[in-house]
Amino acid sequence: MTATVEEKTEGKVGAVPTFTVTIRVARYNPEADTEPHFEDYQVTAHATDRVLDALHQIKWEQDGSLSFRRSCAHGVCGSDAMRINGKNRLACKTLIKDVNPDKPITVEAIKGLPLEKDLIVDMEPFFDAYREVMPFLVTTGNEPTRERIQSQKDRDRFDDTTKCILCAACTTSCPVFWNDGQYFGPAAIVNAHRFIFDSRDEGGSQRLEILNDKEGVWRCRTTFNCTDACPRGIQVTQAIQEVKRALLTSRF
Amino acid sequence: MQTHKYDVVIVGAGGAGMRAALESSTRTRTAVLTKLYPTRSHTGAAQGGMCAALANVEEDNWEWHTFDTVKGGDYLVDQDAAEIMCREAIDAVIDLEKMGLPFNRTPEGKIDQRRFGGHTRNHGEAAVRRSCFAADRTGHMILQTLYQNCVKQGVEFFNEFYVLDLLMNTGADGVERAAGVVAYELSTGEIHVFQAKSIVFATGGTGKVFKTTSNAHTLTGDGMGVAFRRGIPLEDMEFFQFHPTGLAGLGILLSEAARGEGGILRNADGERFMERYAPTIKDLAPRDIVARSMANEVREGRGAGPNKDYVLLDLTHLEPAHIDAKLPDITEFARTYLGVEPYTEPVPVYPTAHYAMGGVPTNVETEVLRNNTDVVPGLYAAGEVACVSVHGSNRLGTNSLLDINVFGRRAGIAAAEYAANAAFVELPANPSSLVDGMVEGIRGRATGERVADLRKELQETMDRNVQVFRTEASMKEALGVIEELKERYANVVVQDKGKRYNTDLLEAVELGFLIELAEVITIGALARKESRGGHFREDYEARDDVNFMRHTMAYRAPVAGEGFGADSPLFSDEVRLDYKPVTVTRYQPMERKY
Questions:
Q1: Which residue among the candidates B114, B129, B287, B410 is catalytic per the annotation?
Q2: Nearest Cβ partner of B151 from A63, A136, A165?
Q3: A4-24, pLDDT tens digit by residue?
Q4: Do A14 and B148 touch (CB under 8 A)?
Q5: pLDDT of residue B570
Q6: ipTM of the complex
Q7: What is the dihedral of CA B549, B552, B553, B554, to 10 degrees?
Q8: Which domain does A140 fall in, by range?
Q9: Rounded to a whole number, what is the distance in Å from the CA of B427 to chain A's nearest CA?
Q10: How many structural domains is chain A composed of?
C-alpha cells in the first residue's frame, strides 16, 4: 500500500484529499544507457490530479532529466500518449485516482516506434503512414463560389473519425503494428476513413487502392485494442471494418 | 552548427503559421519551424467557432461585425484593421470549407452559425448567429484541415526546432533588415542557423505567465520575447484576456459556445447574475465584462462551492441530445476533470488567463513595426504573437480563429512577394553566438535554483496581482517579485546536461521569456491609469479617452540598434514606454453598454 490519505487540502475545489503514490517510470537516456530500466518516484497527488501532473512533479521537484512530450494538458493536442499500467492513454486525460493508486503506477513510452529517450519516441514513421493515405480533401472540376452544400446527415457520416488528434495511442496499441512496422496502422486508416466517407470528396478510390495493399486494412485482426486506446472515443475498429467493406463492395 | 537557406522561414505551425505556409509555399521556397509538431499547436484547443457575416441563418453583414469588434475591444481597436478582418472573414471561412473543413450544417446544407459573446445584429440590438463552427472543436478542425492541406502541398516542416533568436543586419543604407533565425533542434541539441529573405513570426501567445490559464504548457511567449530582446517593441501587452469559463481550480477552457447554445451563469443563490451587469445580452456579453462580473460575485460573497470561490455554468435545462451534438468535448472535460455531469449538475467555473491582445506590432500587411511608423523590412508577424490591432483591449470570442486565418494568409502572401524581389541579407558575424551563450550558460551551471520554483513564484504573483482586478499597489508588488526573479534567473540550474531531447533546458529558456514578458505586461498596466477592456484598475475604474485612447509601445532599453550580443545581460534594466495613436475610421468612442 503506497496510497495513504494525509490531509484535507484547502482552497481547492471540493476540498479534495491528497495521497502519496508511487510512479514507476521506464527511463532511457540514449547518451548513457543501453536499454530502458524502471525507476520509482514518490509523488503527492490530489484526487483531481492527472498522471501528467505526477510526471511534472517528478520533473520539476525531483529529477529534471525526465523527458516526455506534452502541451495542452487536457486531451486535445495528442502529445502525451504513453503506456500507463500497460494501456495506451493520454497522461493528461488519465486521473491518478482512476488507475489504482494503491499500487505503483507504471509509465512507459508507447510501443512499436523507435525509443528516443525516456517517454519520447520517434513519431516520424507514424506520420509517414498518415501522409501516405492522402489525408486531405480531393475534388475535381470548378469550385463553387460559396461553400459546398452538404447535408448534416452526410456531415454526420464521418463525424467520428474527424475527432482524431494523431496521438498514436491506437496505432501503438496494435499487436499487428508491433510485429510489422510497415502496417499503416489504425490512425492512418481512421484518417483515410474521414475522407472516404466525406460526400464532398472524390479521392475515395485512390485511397482504397492504397489501403488494399498487403500492409493495408487486411492486416487488421480486429483485436479492438485501438478502440480501447483511443482517448477521443473513436470507434476505430468499426472505421477499419467500414473501409474493408467499402473495398469489397466499392460502395462508400 | 548547421546552416540552411530559404526564401521564407515561418516560425510556428499553428493556425497562423500553417495558413501562411499554404500561401508562401506555392509561391516560393518555404520552411516552417515549430517547437512542437504542427498538430500539437494550441489552435487545436479553440472550441466555439470563427465568426463571419455569412448571413446563412439570419440577416448579417460585415460592417456590423466590424462595429462589434471595435466596441468589444473598448475602442482601442485599429478600425482599418478590423474592417479588413471582418470583410475578409467571409472568404476565410469559405476557403476553409473548400479545403475540407467539416463545418456543422444548416437544414439547407450550408455552414451553420450560432451566437457568440459580443456579436450582435445592427450595432447592439440583439445577439446574432455569426459563429461558423464544427461542434465545440472548431479549432481542432482548423488545425487539422490546415495541416492536411500542408501535407497535400508538401510544405517543408522542421519539427521540434525551437527558435531562440532573430538575426538582423543593417545595410549600407542604414536600414536594419531581417536576415534569419537561430533554432535549437530538440532531438539532438544542435544549433541551426536559417538564413531567409523574409521571416514570419507565428509563435502564439504567452498564457503561462499566469498560473491559472487555458493555455498549453508550451505557450511561453517565445516569439514576443525573441523580438523584444532584439529591440522590437511590444504593443498593448497589458491587455490580457481572462476567459470567463475555465474549469474551476484547473483553468481548462469551457467554450463560450456553452452560453451561445443557451447556458446560463449562476451564483450560489442560483441567480442569473449577468442580468444585472449586461441587461440586454446578459450571459453573452464580451468576455472582459463577464469575467469581471463573475469575479465580483465571488468577491461579494455570492460564490458557490465549499470555499465560495467559483460560480456555476448551468446547462441542465438543455436537452442532452442538444448538448451532445453541439458541446460534446467541453461536457466531457467537466466529467473527466471535475467528475461533474453537465446534464444534471451545474459546472464550477472561474476566469482563466486566455489570450494576449497585445504582441509584436504590425501594420495590416503584417509587416512588423520597429516604432510607430517604420517597418523592419523582411519581418512579418501574424496570430496571437502579433498586435495588428484587431482586438484592442478585449478580443471578441471567435475573432482569434478569424485573425489567424485572415492575417496568416496575408503574412504568407506578403512574405513570399517580398522574397521574390529581395536579396538575402548578410548574416551577422557569429550568428549563433547569443544562442550558444544562452544554452551553454544554462547547461554549464553546476548548482543553483530550480526553474520550476522561479516559474511558480512568477505565476503566483501574476495571478494574485495582475489578473482581473489590478491596483497600483498590487502591480508594484508583482514588479518587486519580477525584479528579484530577474536576478535569480541568472542562477537557474538544469539537471539534464545532455544533448538529446533536453526539455529541462527548454523550460529554463522559456522561463526567461516568461519573466521578461511578465515585466512588460505589468509595467504597461501600471502606467495605464484607466480601465479599458481586459485591463481593469480598481484605483481608476473609468475609461479615460483623453489620456489613454492610445496604444502602449514598450521598448527594451537600450533602444533598438544598439546591439545585443552574447555578453549583454539577458534582461534589460528598464522597459521604456511610448504610445501610438489608435486608427479611427467610422466609429467614435462611445460608452460601452450591453
A1: B287
A2: A136
A3: 444 434 444 445 678 999 999
A4: no
A5: 81
A6: 0.95
A7: 160
A8: 124-249
A9: 32
A10: 2
